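Input (structure):
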């Protein structure tokens, strides 16, 4: 890819919506031989030839769901760190299970590496994918195996219950918050003497009071 942000949408569609030969050619063109793939349900690791495992993973993915609908929501390229972020939605249907369809949202994080082209006329680097990490919220990836959406519903309820417990903990822990705000001062470490004597700490020496800040060493 010469322009990852502009080209990644086409790459993703080729990986998920094309015949086997095109799918494999896409993986061999855009992934390094030692590329890795990480998903909540599987991972390949990274070693020479691990790209073949990525092809097998995509092939099985396509066999399970011959017709996949993908929509790209947003793309962001961190050129400094060579990381490509893609937010997308997919409609996943398992052909063995009638009437099953899962609309799932995820963010794919792609680490890239630059390679120089072989033709002297083109001096722009091209980018290959060294790792793909598919990130799902828990309530999203359970949709893959939640046929009646009962697991998804249980996770959703559990998340709201956890939020309620956070609210309760924040209210009950109000004294701790007061101490942190008025005595400790956030996340900064302070010694006992500094807390007792006040901000900056104080020492009496030679009949005068000397202010001492909290520095390193």
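Output (sequence):
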């Amino acid at each position: 890819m010469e322009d990852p942000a502009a080209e990644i949408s086409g790459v993703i569609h080729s990986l998920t919506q094309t015949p086997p030969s095109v799918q494999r050619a896409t993986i061999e063109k855009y992934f390094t031989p030692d590329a890795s793939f990480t998903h909540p349900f599987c991972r390949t690791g990274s070693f020479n030839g691990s790209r073949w495992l990525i092809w097998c993973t995509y092939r099985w993915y396509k066999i399970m769901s011959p017709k996949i609908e993908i929509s790209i929501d947003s793309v962001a390229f961190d050129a400094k760190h060579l990381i490509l972020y893609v937010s997308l939605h997919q409609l996943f249907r398992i052909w063995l299970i009638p009437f099953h369809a899962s609309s799932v949202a995820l963010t794919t994080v792609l680490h890239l590496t630059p390679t120089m082209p072989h033709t002297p006329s083109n001096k722009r680097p091209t980018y290959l994918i060294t790792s793909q990490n598919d990130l799902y919220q828990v309530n999203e990836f359970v949709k893959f195996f939640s046929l009646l959406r009962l697991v998804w519903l249980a996770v959703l309820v559990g998340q709201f219950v956890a939020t309620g417990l956070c609210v309760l903990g924040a209210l009950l822990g109000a004294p701790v918050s007061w101490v942190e705000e008025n005595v400790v001062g956030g996340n900064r470490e302070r010694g006992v003497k500094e807390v007792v004597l006040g901000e900056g700490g104080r020492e009496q020496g030679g009949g005068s009071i000397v202010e001492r800040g909290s520095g390193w060493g």
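Notes: Residues 202-217 have pLDDT under 50 and may be disordered. Residues 8 and 129 are 10 Å apart (CA to CA).
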